[in-house]
Amino acid sequence: MYQYFKDKHDILIAGIQKYASDIFYPMLNTVTTKIDLSPQNFRDVLKNMINRFIENHKLSQSAHQEIMAMTHSDEDIAHFFQEHEIYMTDTIVKLLQSHGICSENLPEKVHISINLIDDLCHEIVYHKHKCMNYDVMIDLVVDTIVGLIK
């Protein structure tokens, strides 16, 4: 397998793509599988999605940290994740629109929401501040996203 790749950097990129398809893309299934995004259900869907994202962050903590660090020093890896972020944003925007949620600047609001959830996941999985009540923090993030997306 090692000789299949001309440039050994390609092995790294292929490994990261595999990691993304095993860890990140399944998270997208959390929000795109048959769900009811009615106003009375939206909070519960968000909370469920956040809890699944937290669990996915726990799967490979050290790999995730290493790969995210590489996004700052490797242009190809940074580009790969930038494209993934936009794909995730576009997918969620289309899902919301298909359920009649069409607020102004929706792509920007969704992108901010994704980053807010990602930061929450990092706080809970990596930072683990004992003085923080993570149940309260999850509720605050949900409230913020609901207010933003309306």
Describe, in plain words, how this protein is organized in 3D.
The longest helix has 25 residues, at 8-32. The chain has helices at 8-32, 39-59, 61-70, 75-98, 106-127, 134-149. Helix 2 packs across helix 5. The model has no long low-confidence stretch (mean pLDDT 85). Helices cover 79% and strands 0% of the residues. The chain has 150 residues and is mainly alpha-helical. It is built from 6 helices and no strands.
- By DSSP (H or I, 4+ residues per run), the number of helices equals 6
- Rounded radius of gyration (Å): 17 Å
Q: Topology as H/E string?
A: HHHHHH
- Average pLDDT score: 85
Instruction: State the helical fraction.
Output: over 70%
Total DSSP E strands: 0
Which stretches are poorly predicted, pLDDT < 50 over at least 5 residues?
none
Largest sheet: none
Shape category: globular
What's the end-to-end separation, in Å? 50 Å
Structural class: mainly alpha
